[in-house]
Design goal:
The strands form two sheets. Strands 3-4-5-6-8-7 form a six-stranded mixed beta sheet. It has helices at residues 2-14, 18-22, 26-47, 54-65, 74-81, 85-97, 111-116, 126-132, 140-154, 193-206, 235-241; strands at residues 101-104, 120-123, 158-163, 167-174, 177-184, 211-216, 221-225, 228-234. The protein is built from eleven helices and eight strands. The chain is α/β, with parallel strands linked by helices. Helix 3 (26-47) crosses helix 8 (126-132) and helix 5 (74-81) packs across helix 6 (85-97). 50% of the residues lie in helices and 20% in strands.
Length: 242
């Protein structure tokens, strides 16, 4: 278990590219990750789509990768960076075609509302996120959420987020029905417990789910609230079970 936890910490920090995983030197790991990003950025986005304004492309990618898991709109990104809304949308579509990033909609039974509501962005690899953006230790919660999204995406699941009075990170839709609700947080403590539980309970009640899942860095427990069962499980254990 100790070794699994250590491997998991390495996975959060450096991601899952095989060449990176097999490299023992930490400085070289970082260099390889940066080279991978540069290759995707230049070969699969800039050159492939004949883009000339490299700075705008990089600024947009840096912005969204630095803000993974946070709701965004094309308009807000454009205003923040001084770029048109259509340019933001175009460049992010190129990045998605290159499998560098993925977007996720807020769930609504109306497709029109799904289209206009804020989206969330996730990155293909946490190593790339760490090499480009924020301090690793301060943002583990968002990195964990990114890892969970990528696993759900790899399983070909139809994934959304829930947002009303409270928020739930992931809803899984099968056919016409929401079948699962998943919340991700680094840890449940006095500061986060009420918020995370309120979010998942709200989603479970709205979509008539009897059981929900809260994934954490290393906590494991069960709780029954308002006749709803909540399973609390470490992300590393959930990933291995998947």
């Amino acid at each position: 278990i100790i070794e699994k936890k250590q491997r998991f910490q390495d996975y959060i920090r450096y991601g899952g590219f095989p060449r990176v995983v097999l490299e023992k030197d930490e400085a070289l790991k970082q260099e390889i990750i940066k080279n991978y990003f540069q290759t995707i950025y230049l070969k699969d986005i800039i050159y492939l789509n004949n883009l000339r304004n490299n700075k705008d492309v990089f600024d947009i990618l840096y912005f969204v990768i630095s803000n993974i898991s946070r709701p965004f709109s094309y308009n807000k990104i454009g205003k923040s960076l001084g770029v048109s809304t259509e340019t933001v949308k175009e460049y992010l579509e190129y990045a998605q075609q290159a499998y560098l990033i993925f977007s996720m909609n807020k769930f609504d039974y109306s497709l029109k509302k799904q289209f206009v509501n804020p989206k969330k962005i996730y990155c293909i690899d946490t190593g790339i996120v760490n090499s480009l953006s924020f301090k690793f230790s301060e943002n583990k919660g968002r990195l964990l959420e990114n890892m969970v999204f990528i696993r759900l995406k790899n399983q070909k699941k139809e994934v959304y987020y829930h947002k009303e009075k409270y928020e739930c990170d992931f809803l899984i839709k099968k056919g016409k029905k929401i079948t699962e609700a998943i919340q991700v947080t680094q840890k449940l403590n006095e500061e986060t417990r009420k918020r995370e539980i309120k979010g998942i309970i709200e989603a479970m009640k709205k979509y008539n789910l009897e059981q929900g899942l809260i994934l954490t860095e290393d906590q494991e427990d069960k709780a029954t609230i308002d006749n709803k069962e909540i399973i609390i499980m470490p992300v590393w254990k959930w990933l291995l079970e998947q």
